[in-house]
Amino acid sequence: MRVSDIGFDTDERLERASVESAESFPALRYALSPLFDVRRTSASGVLDGSIVAYRVDGVVVGRLRFGGLWIGRNCHGYAASTATAVAVQSYRAGSFRGHSGVEELALTGSCVAVLDTTAAFHGVAEFEILLAVIPQRRLQGVRIGSGGFSSCVWDEESTEAAMMTPLLESIWTQLSHTNESDGPKLASAFTGMLGGLVASERRQAASISAHTLDEMKKYLRRNLDDPDLGAHSLEREFHRSRATIYRIFTDDGGVASFIRTERLRRCHAQLTSGDVDGTTLATIASSSGLDPTHFSRMFRNQYGCAPSELHRAAQAARLDRPESNGYRPVGDAVRIHQWLSAM
Predict the structure, then answer these.
(1) Are 71 and 89 in contact (CB under 8 A)?
(2) Which range marks the domain in which residue 259 is found?
(3) Rg (CA), the chain
(4) How many domains are contained in the chain?
(5) How many CA atoms does the CB half-sphere of 62 hold within 13 Å?
(6) Phi then psi for 166, rounded to 5 degrees?
(7) What are the b/e assignments for 238-258, b being 16+ CB within 10 Å?
(8) Which of 155, 182, 207 is the last residue of a domain?
(9) For residues 48 and 150, what is the distance between their CA atoms, to the nearest angstrom?
(10) Is the domain of 77 the same as that of 157?
(11) In this structure, are 226 and 258 located in the same domain?
């Protein structure tokens, strides 16, 4: 076995390669390094991982098994990806849990994940998946990288997963006894369907009007006190795929970032309103769906001061207001105050 057999730059077809971590964990890391880095979960962690792969007309198709290993790329000290490609992951068993640049990732069940290999992520993988890695040049009209395609996650009940899962399973079953002349047919069938589904996903995202996005944000603001509020809530309420929802919230830093910002904004308004005397910070945080144990840190990150400091300053400012000393505003003073308050 040659670890280099798993590379992306030769034109040979139906090469087969396999690596077991029990034989050589460095070999497994090296084999997968064009896609991501692989590490122990702890100094004494069990090194349980393997890959069996074929190269079919420039497309790498394999079965990947990880037993609780850290994987990641382009972040937190993990190695950078060198492959400009799309990776399709069909989950047979287990899960991957971690984070991308903007969202929490929880891939499990029989979902299908289509990921840009240049995007950052990290987390723990304990799964068995079928993996197909397709060079960008094979996906006509699908641009990846900065400003282009990032990811799609299709739940097991989606039409896309119902199409992709059996196709990838069928290709995997046939690879061990496929003639070299038939390899390009399998690769073309797979890349053609994938390209069509990804392009459809992007058209769907582009078709969502500003009105729909505004309605989604209104829904989130009305339900900020729900601690389980998230992309799945929008998916259920608006009947859009999660990947589409993630994509249209990109300018807001993602759904989770938007919710966090709005919750902190609500807390800020409460702290400066004068209506929270005697109310603890933990109660204020909980009433907006925030975890009280992290509230002060998140608030300081967004507003540059601790919530307790803002509360004290707001109380002092209220005591020093003209109306607090018997003044009753009238006329244009009221009008200007209203104008500025509406900013």
Answers:
(1) no
(2) 210-341
(3) 26
(4) 2
(5) 25
(6) -65, -30
(7) eebbbbbbbbbbeebebbbeb
(8) 207
(9) 29
(10) yes
(11) yes
H-type alpha helices, the chain: 25-32, 159-175, 183-207, 210-222, 231-238, 242-248, 255-273, 281-287, 292-303, 307-319, 331-341
Cα 184 from Cα 171, distance rounded (Å)? 12
Rounded Cα–Cα distance for residues 328 and 325 (Å): 9
Q: What is residue 223's predicted lDDT score, i.e. its pLDDT? A: 93
Residues 169 and 305 in one domain: no
Listed in sequence order, the residues at least 6 apart from 168 whose beta carbon sits closer than 8 Å to its beta carbon are: 61, 88, 90, 130, 132, 190
Residue with tokens 């040659």: 2
Distances in Å between the Cα of 169 and the Cα atoms of 139, 155, 173 are 20, 17, 6
- Positions of the chain with pLDDT under 50: 1-11, 44, 145-148, 343
Nearest-angstrom CA–CA distance, 307 and 309:
5
- pTM (predicted TM-score): 0.57
Domain at 269, CATH number: 1.10.10.60
Contact 39, 70 (CB under 8 A): yes
DSSP secondary structure string, 289-335? T--HHHHHHHHHHHHSS-HHHHHHHHHHHHHTSGGGGT----HHHHH
Which of 38, 99, 88, 85 is closest to 63 using CA atoms?
A: 88
Contact predicate 124/41, CB 8 Å: yes
Does one domain contain both 196 and 218? no
Whole-angstrom distance, CA of residue 187 vs CA of residue 135: 11
* Structure confidence by residue, pLDDT tens digits, 88-108: 899 999 988 887 755 677 888
Residue 14: how many CB atoms within 10 A of its CB?
Answer: 17
Joined tokens for residue 300:
């300081």
Please name the amino acid found at residue 77.
G
